[in-house]
Every structure is written in structure tokens, then in C-alpha cells.
């Protein structure tokens, strides 16, 4: 992935995401690579936590008892959508915490099913990935087959 993405780094500075470029003969998931992914995971978690805080403040500030039922319904619908989104993000934060724990235990970057390397590019695209592309594809095929049965 050659495109650069902006990620929040620190309380008040923006830092540019740079894809990791492994050196020839470099060991997979060495200390530099683990530090690279720890930084990505922590930045992502920080962004999500900031969004949770913004939502809480927004809901407190915007909460009003509208006399018009249509206005009340619109506000409740908006709040419901925000809460569903935050719930999904809460689950993602849990996955990020699990990934950080795997980095700490030197178990990050390897497929849970077959033990092979997940790959740097895949992890940069989906830092919480726990399956290699092949095992993930097989799992999705199984899910579709079970879903249709």
C-alpha cells in the first residue's frame, strides 16, 4: 500500500502513516515490525476512544425534550444510530486490545489456524487480523455454506 494515511499521534500532533518496508533477509515480526504495529494499534485505539468521548459530549449537549413528536423521533433515531456505531467501535477496541496483547506476547502476525505468517501488508490493511488470507477465505466459504443451509 503506497498511499499515505493520516493517523492521530500524540495529543495534538498528526503523524503520517508509512508502510513498513522490510529489509532483505529481515526476520518476520522482529522488534521493529512489532513496534510498527503497536504504534498503529495504539493510534487506532486512541482515535476510537476520542470518538467515544465526542459522542458522549454530543449526546449530552444535544439532548433535548422536543415538544414535537417528529423532532423527538428524529433525535432518538440519530442517537440510536450513534450508539450502534459506538457499540461496534467498542467491540473493535476489544479486538485492538487483544492484538496489542499478542504483540506483547510475541504472538502477533501469525495465523491462529495454520500458524503461518499473516503478512505485513495484510496486517497494515487489517491490524486486528488473526487469520492468513487462505484460512480467512476458507472460513468465509464455510460461513456462506452454513448460512444457506
UniProtKB/TrEMBL annotation:
Domain Zinc finger DksA/TraR C4-type: 107-139
Zinc finger (dksA C4-type): 111-135
Compartment annotation: Cytoplasm
Domain called DnaK suppressor protein DksA N-terminal: residue spans: 33-103
InterPro entries: DksA_N (IPR048489), DksA_RNA_pol-bd (IPR012784), DnaK_N (IPR037187), Znf_C4-type_bac (IPR020460), Znf_DskA_TraR (IPR000962), Znf_DskA_TraR_CS (IPR020458)
Subunit structure: Interacts directly with the RNA polymerase.
NCBIfam families hit by this protein: dksA
Its job: Transcription factor that acts by binding directly to the RNA polymerase (RNAP). Required for negative regulation of rRNA expression and positive regulation of several amino acid biosynthesis promoters. Also required for regulation of fis expression.
Protein's name in the database: RNA polymerase-binding transcription factor DksA
Organism: Spectribacter acetivorans
Taxonomic classification: Bacteria, Pseudomonadati, Pseudomonadota, Gammaproteobacteria, Salinisphaerales
Originating gene: dksA
Amino acid at each position: 500500500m503506497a498511499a499515505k494515511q493520516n493517523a492521530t499521534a500524540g495529543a495534538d500532533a498528526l503523524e503520517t502513516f508509512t508502510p513498513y518496508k522490510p529489509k532483505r533477509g529481515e526476520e518476520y515480526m522482529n522488534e521493529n515490525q512489532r513496534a510498527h504495529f503497536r504504534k498503529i494499534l495504539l493510534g487506532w485505539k486512541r482515535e476510537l476512544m476520542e470518538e467515544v468521548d465526542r459522542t458522549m459530549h454530543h449526546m449530552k449537549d444535544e439532548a433535548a425534550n422536543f415538544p414535537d413528536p417528529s423532532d423527538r423521533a428524529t433525535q432518538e433515531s440519530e442517537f440510536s444510530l450513534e450508539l450502534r456505531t459506538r457499540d461496534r467501535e467498542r467491540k473493535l477496541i476489544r479486538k485492538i486490545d487483544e492484538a496489542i496483547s499478542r504483540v506483547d506476547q510475541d504472538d502477533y502476525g501469525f495465523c491462529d489456524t495454520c500458524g503461518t505468517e499473516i503478512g505485513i501488508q495484510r496486517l497494515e490493511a487489517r491490524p486486528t487480523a488473526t487469520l492468513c488470507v487462505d484460512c480467512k477465505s476458507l472460513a468465509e466459504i464455510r460461513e456462506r455454506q452454513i448460512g444457506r443451509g
